[in-house]
Design brief:
By secondary structure, the protein is α+β, with helices and mostly antiparallel strands. It contains 5 helices and 5 strands, in the order H-H-H-H-E-E-E-H-E-E. Strands 1, 2, 3, 4 and 5 form a 5-stranded antiparallel sheet that branches.
């Protein structure tokens, strides 16, 4: 205790003068050094460590998202052979469907096939006309306006025959009206051509 008292002996806080800091007792100097070191540490902590800690928190917050991205990528890599096989299957199916689309040279033959189906079904063919084509994203739509007359059974046989053609033909916007000896039907058939210019 006496050593501690000696360390502060002769110091009066009211007479504290920084110009005579070298003459202060060793205990006062030690306390001042501790205060300066504490201020430096506190300032360093505030200006350096706090920024680093907030950066660390940001990186930790990203971790969960990055783990999810990693899981998705790992799943994609694990399923890559299956996806490649699916792609091959889709390309094969697309090639098969593309073969079912008539080429520009085959459209007159398709009109003949539709005419023959109508005749074979026993229908009276009013008209089968190719309308102006319509260009879509990667294909060209070719509308065919059909006007026929006959019985309900004959119309059903004709529509079934069109659905069974080797080329893709879809039927749209039909109108059936009763006639004296049966019914008449106006229907729009559409076939499609692959747009090779794409």
């Amino acid at each position: 205790m006496s050593a501690l008292k000696d360390a502060f002996k002769g110091f009066d806080i009211n007479d504290m003068d920084l110009s005579s800091a070298g003459n202060w007792p060793i205990g006062v100097k030690f306390v001042c050094y501790l205060l300066v070191i504490a201020l430096i540490v506190a300032g360093g902590w505030h200006f350096y460590i706090t920024d680093k800690q907030s950066g660390l928190k940001r990186e930790i917050a990203k971790e969960a998202n990055l783990k999810n991205v990693y899981k998705e990528k790992a799943f994609q890599v694990a399923s890559l052979p299956a996806l490649r096989q699916q792609m091959k299957d889709v390309e094969t199916k697309f090639a098969e469907l593309k073969k079912q689309l008539p080429t520009e040279k085959e459209v007159p033959g398709l009109l003949d096939d539709i005419t023959n189906l109508g005749s074979d079904s026993g229908l009276d063919i009013g008209s089968i006309k190719l309308a102006s084509e319509s260009k879509k994203d990667f294909y060209i739509e070719l509308p065919i306006n059909i006007s026929v007359a006959g019985s309900y059974h004959q119309l059903g046989q004709f529509v079934s025959g069109v659905a069974g053609l080797s080329r893709i033909v879809t039927l749209h916007d039909y109108a059936i009206k009763p006639e004296a000896d049966g019914v008449s039907m106006r229907i729009s058939a559409k076939t499609y051509r692959f747009d090779d210019t794409q």
